[in-house]
Specification:
By secondary structure, this protein is of the alpha+beta class. It is built from 3 helices and 2 strands, in the order αααββ.
Amino acid sequence: MTYRYEEALVKTCIAKARRPRHLIELCDRRRRGGALDRLNPMQDLDERYVTWLPSGAEKRSRPFIKQDAVR
């Protein structure tokens, strides 16, 4: 079972090659937790909609989703 907003997030912001895996795992009761954990750091974002911002708080950069992606 996926929620509409999760499915919309995956279809809009996740790289096309990785979308099927995310959607399948969100529907699988056993894999759902891991799939949600992978959405949190947003490592599979479609680069067309992302500008990477440096972060002084951590070693790696944090993504910033452009406004065009959420419309």
